[in-house]
Amino acid sequence: MTRPIAHAVSRRHAVLAGAALGLAAGSGRLRAAPGAFTIRFSHVVAEDTPKGLAARRFQALVQERSAGRITVTIYPEAQLYGDHDEVQALQLGAVEILAPSLSKFGRIGFPEFELFDLPYFFPDVARVRRITQGALGQRMLARLERQRLVGLGFMDNGFKHMSANRPLLEATDFVGQRMRIQASRVIAAQMRALGAQPVTLAFSETRRALAAGVVDGTENPVSNFWTQGMQEVQTDLSLTEHGYLGYAVVTSQRFWQALSPSDRALVRDAMEQALAFGNQIADTQNEKAFAALRGYAGTRIHALTAGQKDRLRGAVQSVHAGLAQRIGADWLDQARSALQRTE
Ligand code: SIN
């Protein structure tokens, strides 16, 4: 199993060093021959996940279609930048592409993205796609311009489950549990509504924090749980399916505008295809991880009854109204009407 690589240099130092390199090379492009450049794609998960494999597909497509003129270098597992500094690195020109989870956009000034974190809001991934692949999703991506970012598209991982060193089947099971969360106010509110204490930690720090007992539990789709080796430090996984995890792929305006129109089209098309591929394999990657987990004796897997799910759903209802108040009811109304539309 791959593990995040520890870095000797501090993150801040790495951002600045990377930015200096980017500036020296001109808009983050490292020129080797006329027209040749490298796209650095940084993400925080393992390679054998939906996002990791979609990044690989993007790399293969770009390199093949540019006949090797454009190189894509992928830095998985927060090897280069992690949750705390990746957006800053992108804005400074130290990397060209990121694919943060949608939950991480709230903290950088896009709270409307946190609607994807609402617990028990989306019945299935097909309905999430009505938003991500529809007008509302486009409106969200367009807003990224305010931070000099360009949104290249959305991608699914899947539904999250709760893990800890005890089953989490009823709200009372959560009381007093310190639960690692992403930097999302909606997820924090969800954990508080369940009686747990939310602790925001970078993804790359999560397994270590679980192992050290700094936190008791967490939430993630099985593909992330398994590929981080969280089964080695959590005795119970409860199949709550309470929330969605997906991604938005972003680049910086500075990099995007420096591309020639034909390179921009090449990169956009390759990304569209890579994201479609990622969406196609997300379910199977989660099922593959789930099958592996079922064969692992150290973690008990608990299916919830319909009654248990209903009670959890009831316990977190207040979170929906809280977000509507914060981002304006309009976003939630539009999301609800996309979900209810008959197709
Ligand atoms: C990811 O899938 O990119 C990480 C999710 C998390 O931080 O829990």
Explain how this protein is built.
With 343 residues, this protein is an alpha/beta fold. The protein is built from 14 helices and 9 strands. It has helices spanning 11-25, 50-65, 86-92, 125-132, 135-143, 171-174, 185-193, 203-212, 222-227, 253-258, 261-294, 306-315, 317-327, 329-340; strands at residues 37-42, 70-75, 97-98, 149-164, 178-181, 197-200, 218-220, 236-252, 300-303. β5, α7 (185-193) and β6 form a beta-alpha-beta unit. α1 runs parallel beside α3 (86-92), α7 (185-193) packs antiparallel against α13 and α13 crosses α14 (329-340). The longest helix is centred in the C-terminal third of the chain and has 34 residues, at 261-294. Mean pLDDT is 92; it is low at 1-16 and 18-28. Residues 44-45, 101, 157, 182, 203, 220, 224, 245 line the site of succinic acid.
- What structural class do helix, strand and pairing data support? alpha/beta
The string of secondary-structure elements, in order, is HEHEHEHHEHEHEHEHEHHEHHH
Mean pLDDT: 92
Bound ligands, named by name, code or SMILES: succinic acid
Core attributes:
343 residues, alpha/beta, seven-stranded mixed β-sheet, 9 strands, disordered N terminus, binds succinic acid
